[in-house]
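Write out a record, focusing on structure:
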Amino acid sequence: MIKTLLACTVLCASAAVFAQSPGTVASWAGIPAHAWAAPTQMMLLDATHAGSRLVAVGEHGVIVLSDDDGRTWRQARQVPVAATLSAVTFTDALHGWAVGQWGAILATRDGGETWEKQRIDTAVDQPLFSIIFTSAQDGLAVGLWSLMLSTHDGGRTWTRTTLPKPPGGGKADRNLYHIFADHQGTLYMVAEQGTVLRSGDGGANWTYRATGGNGSLWAGVAMPDGRIVVGGLLGSMFQSSDGGATWAPLNSGTRSSITDLVATGDGLIGVGLDGLVLKQRAGAASLEVTQRPDRATLTAALIGTGGKPILFSQDGVLAAP
């Protein structure tokens, strides 16, 4: 089932990982993660830096760590859930959080070696897709059907936040796929129907911004040159040079869906379905499009030492193209 979901949308995979009865799935998701023989060959959905360490998360509660710039990896010693994990973030080399299926939120205080459960709701599988901490104490986690949770005590308590209704009425029930900040601290969330939500006060208040597109946006990044770039379904990309007030289309040159965008020292790298790898060099108007021969379902990218991209996928850690 996961492969079918990934072919449609990588970032919704955790919403329906198993076709089993809710009770069975909930019980399974809440047990500690299994120690796998080859964890780097399992589906990994997100990755980040924890100081000089690399940390990636994925299916069945898998968390893998690398201390040599991605050459070798090992599984975290202790993860309290087997739920699929969809996103991870760190505020420094030691303190980090991961989120995923069943609204799970995990925290670590030792660089990802061991994790503790801060939240999980097995009553309903309303997954969290993304998380950000703007300080050591203040964090936001977002996910399915406009689910937003906030903390101001480092995750010891999480409170549900109700978003305003979108323009034109209706419920605030859009899936929130990725939350990120620009260099001034303004927050952005990419969502369905070509929508970007923006907050200039740390997430207390949000406004909806239309990019002009209609498809789901799965990725976004703040660039060193001040641009905000977002992307998603069928290669759609948009950019803003005025803090998200207005948006213009950016020709990606592809119809493959974009799952991650990362700023580099000299531009932008994006990855996506069908082995898609995008590059935009600093100052360039156009993007370079390549496609891996294996057509791997790429889910995330990190920039390693010397600018080398480290790629993650449905099949785990991949070598750079």
